[in-house]
Structure formats: C-alpha cells, structure tokens
Amino acid sequence: MSRRSLPNAITIARLCALPLFVWLYSQDAPQASWPTFVLVGIMALSDLLDGWLARRYQWQTDLGRVLDPVTDRVLFIVVVSTLMVFGTLPWWAVLPLVVRDTALLIGAGILLFRYHERPVIMRGGKVANLILICGIQFFIIDLRAIAWPLYTVGAVLYILTGLRYIWRAALRWRQHHEAPAASEG
Fold it and tell me: What φ, ψ does residue 124 adopt, rounded to 5°?
C-alpha cells in the first residue's frame, strides 16, 4: 500500500468498524458502554486524521473525495439508528437526522453521477457533526443530562446545514439546466 492511499485505508477501516460498533453497543445497551464510547472516539479521530493526512501531504484522491463523506453519512446513520433500536434515543430524535443524511447521500449521488461534481463540505456541517458526536458520546455512556442539550443543539445545526446543502444542490441543478437553454437561444 502506498502512502498516498493511507487516508482511504483509514476511511475504509472506519466503515469496517461499524459492525463492531453495533456488536459492542448491543452488549451493554441502553446502559453505559465504555468500550463503545472508546470505539466511537477512535472513529471520530480517524475521520480527522484521514482528512489531515490527505490535505497535509496532498494525498487526496478522487476515491477519497467521495468515499470519506459517504462513509461519514453511513456511519452517522448506523450509529444513531443503533442507539434508537436499543432504546437510547427515541425515533423522533433520530428520524430527522437520518432523513437529512439520506437526502444528502441521494443528492450527492445525483451531483456525482449525473454532473460529475462532488459536493463541497461546509464548515457549519462539520461543527454540527462535532457537537452531535459529543452528544452521542454522552448518550453512549448514559449521561443524558449532558447528552440531550448537546444533541439538541447539534441536531438543529445539522438540520439547518442539511437545508443549506439542499439549497446549494438545487442551485447547481438549476445552473446545469439553465446553461443549455441559454446557449440554445
């Protein structure tokens, strides 16, 4: 394996850790699960590491530009859905986030496969994701008094940034459809 592919390998390892996450959490849920807390922390840090390596050493690849955000969305959907299945989070706290990420995955797929564009990651989305991960971590160790405020703030920001992503994608779609019409006239 070349050094250039290291960020992609880290991303793939994060994706492969999801079954371990589900299994670990199932052992203690819905009570505190410190092994799961550690694993989610490692997965979150690995996301920072692969991005840093790719940018720092110019090891970005076309695969990584698609794989990393898709892995992040899949990871998030699996984590919050698992917490819901085991009774840690109610469905109404999970559903808006899963709908948001599913819509973003579909929209990103359309942009990529139809227009050969990769969505641009926004800083607000990263901040929302960080706050949500902190809230989720506190749910995993059963500190709900800290988890709920973080999760609520993170979820609101997450939904708002999701709407912003959708707005930007709609503008890009409109540009693609107006450009041919303008050149024909």
Answer: -60, -35
In tens, the pLDDT along 131-143 reads 999 999 999 999 9
pLDDT single digits (tens) 90-147? 999 999 999 988 888 888 787 778 777 776 777 888 899 999 999 999 999 999 999 9
* Dihedral Cα 11, 168, 94, 141, nearest 10 deg: 50
CB atoms within 10 A of CB 29: 19
At 116, list the tokens: 């050969």
- The tokens 């849920």 sit on which residue? 29
Tally of structural domains, the chain:
1
Whether this prediction's pTM lies above 0.70 is answered by: yes
Could you tell me what percentage of the chain is helix, strand and coil, using 3-state DSSP and rounding each to the nearest 5? 85, 0, 15
**Greatest CA span in the chain, whole angstroms?**
65
Q: Could you tell me the CATH number of the domain that includes residue 136? A: 1.20.120.1760
CA distance 140 to 180: 51
Task: Write out the H or E segment, with its range, that includes residue 126.
Answer: helix 123-140
**CA–CA separation, 174 vs 158, rounded Å?**
24
Residue closest to 15 by CA, chosen among 53, 59, 47, 63 = 47
